[in-house]
Design brief:
single chain, about 300 residues, mainly beta, Jelly Rolls, 2 domains, eleven-stranded antiparallel beta sheet, 20 strands, about 0% helix
Length: about 300
């Protein structure tokens, strides 16, 4: 048995057993967000567990203990606003278990970010939480985190620098490649664009001009574009719903063999086949007088 410790809202967690007590006002609903990213839509990118007044009296995927919008709990608890409830939530790998007031409501598998923050969604009605404690379970995810560009290599042009923790590309045409070789991998990064920059993230490429530069996940904010943000360039068009110019958005890319999937703020934007191989990951700028920023770039081999 590992020791329980005080919950830290500013830490990212992978595998854990979380205990707490909560009390909801009448009509209240909220989400316990597990492995939530700092950017984008945490309810779509992370693992959302529903906590609600449940006055509708129907067993759905949006009542207490549900993986919100995805998986209904095993049973419906009676409405319980204005009362303190005890919750135990265990997330270990892809297995999620939820026990509330001694009732096992959820024992299922989930997908989503392998690490992230623990949050409660504020949806208008008041609620209280107390006695939060967490027991960390052994982790298995190892990210390569890229915050400095000291050892990166530039192919062609553009101006690159680090500002306020973000990697910034501006004014030119080129690809900046991170150290490390990747074949099957997952990448997560927050992105912000200015002046409708044309940019991208390259996979399985090389800074050496005698070698292939790789294939691209596009960054171009207008959804009306031929290949908007999240597209697998030249192969699959993205389905992003809005122009994200000037706003931080979250991109997640999973590459396994010749299969690539791209998520935009937790929503699947594109999926398709890509060339096999092994190479470096690169960040592209492809326009003058425009800027792209990358924050909290992380990559892991699969």
């Amino acid at each position: 048995m590992m020791d329980r410790m005080a919950f830290d809202p500013e830490r990212e967690y992978e595998n854990f057993r979380l205990t707490f007590e909560y009390k909801l006002a009448q009509w209240c609903e909220t989400l316990l967000l597990l492995r939530a990213p700092r950017w984008g839509r945490p309810d779509l990118s992370g693992v959302p567990v529903q906590l609600a007044h449940d006055f509708h009296g129907k067993l759905t995927a949006n009542v207490t203990g549900a993986v919100a919008g995805r998986t209904a709990p095993r049973k419906l608890l009676p409405p319980g606003f204005g009362q303190w409830h005890k919750a135990e939530v265990t997330l270990d790998g892809e297995r999620l278990r939820v026990v509330i007031d001694g009732e096992s409501l959820q024992d299922t598998t989930v997908e989503g970010h392998p690490t992230g923050f623990i949050r409660f969604a504020k949806l208008g009605h008041p609620f209280e939480v107390r006695a939060m404690a967490i027991e960390e379970l052994p982790g298995r995810v190892r990210w390569d985190r890229y915050e400095s560009i000291d050892e990166w290599r530039l192919r062609d042009g553009g101006t690159w620098f680090v500002r306020d923790g973000a990697i910034v590309g501006t004014d030119g045409h080129g690809i900046l490649y991170a150290p490390g070789l990747y074949e099957d991998c997952e990448l997560q990064v927050a992105v912000r664009t200015q002046n409708h920059v044309n940019a991208g993230i390259f996979f399985r490429g090389s800074p050496d001009k005698a070698k292939d530069r790789g294939w691209e996940v596009q960054i171009f904010s207008p959804p009306e574009a031929v290949y908007p943000t999240g597209s697998i360039y030249g192969r699959v068009r993205s389905t992003i719903p809005f122009d994200h110019e000037g706003v931080w958005i979250l991109l997640r890319v999973c590459v396994e063999g010749t299969r690539c999937r791209v998520w935009f703020n937790g929503m699947l934007a594109a999926a398709g086949d890509v060339p096999a191989g092994r190479g470096q990951v690169g960040l592209q700028i492809h326009l003058e007088k425009a800027t792209v920023e990358f924050r909290e770039l992380r990559i892991r081999s699969l």
